[in-house]
Design goal:
The chain is an alpha/beta fold. Helix content is 39%, strand content 17%. The longest helix has 16 residues, at 17-32.
Length: 227
Amino acid sequence: MEFFQYRNVVIETPNSPEAEAYRKLELNIRLQGIDQKIRVIQTTSPTPKDGKTTTAINLAAVYAERGLKTLIIDFDLRKPKIHRAFKKANEIGFYDYIVENKAIEDIIIKDESGIDLILSGKHITSPHIVLESKKTQALIDKVTSLYDVIIVDSPPVLSVTDAFIISNLVGGVIYVVAYNQTKKEDAKVALQQLREADINILGSVFANVDPKLTGYSYNYYYRQEEE
């Protein structure tokens, strides 16, 4: 069975307009954190396949490119994808920390890209309960002391409650919608739910934009949230 191939354009085509768009995204996040650095960033979307995982891995690549010690955590525990994006076996990860009491250092995977990973590992039942646990908070506290930046890939907003639980563990959320794919009503409803939950939305990423059709110069278009 073939899986969707996640492109890390920052690494594969570093001089491309697409890679520059992710650098612009990182710069906008950095400018928002002038007074207080935003170090733990969550990516989510209204529905599956909207581009949140692609955004997570490319944003992480920008931070690594800048020389910052960067970690990605796969908290999309029901349908994990980070191991596929980095072509890793999902044999050890968050499950082993929660269930097998493995040390955090033992579940971190070093990738040749310079980005470190914490994968999901084996399937965890009732992930919403686990994500709310003190042990999960302890993991975030520990990796925050070890890394400059942590990117957390989370489930879509309209699928499960997990994205809202994870938002309590992070400094801000990047909201990703896909051009010509995400239903407009889904995008509006999910964004409204995030706002009603008083979640710090750092901005929106408009993914899969076709420059020929829209006139945008990048495949990923970033917009800072406004009141």
